[in-house]
Amino acid sequence: MALPEQPTDPRRPLERELERSVPDGFRIAVVGDCILTRPLSAIAERDEGLRGALERLRSATLAVGNLETCIFEMRGFTGHPYSTGDWPLVAGPPVAEDLAGLGLRIVGRANNHSMDWGPAGMRDTNRLLDRAGIAHAGTGESLASALAPRYVETDGGRVALVSVYSAESGDLSLALDQFGEAPGRPGVAGIRRSTTIRAPEEAMPILREIAERLDPDRTGAVGSWFGRPEGELPMLGVTFAQGDDFAVEHSFDAADVKAVLRSIRLGKQFADLLVLNVHTHDEGPDAATPPRCLVDLARAAVDAGADVVACHGVHRLAGIELHRGSPILYGLGNFAFSDLAAPLTQMLYEQAGGLIPEVLGDRSQATDADVTLLLSAQGFDDDRFFESVIAEIDYTNGEPSVRLVPIDLRYGEPLTQSGTPRLAQPEPATAILERVDRLSRPLGAAVGADGLVNASEG
Question: Which residues of 120-147 are buried (b: 16+ CB within 10 A; e: fewer)?
Answer without folding.
Answer: bbbbbbbebbeebebbbbbbbbbbbbbb
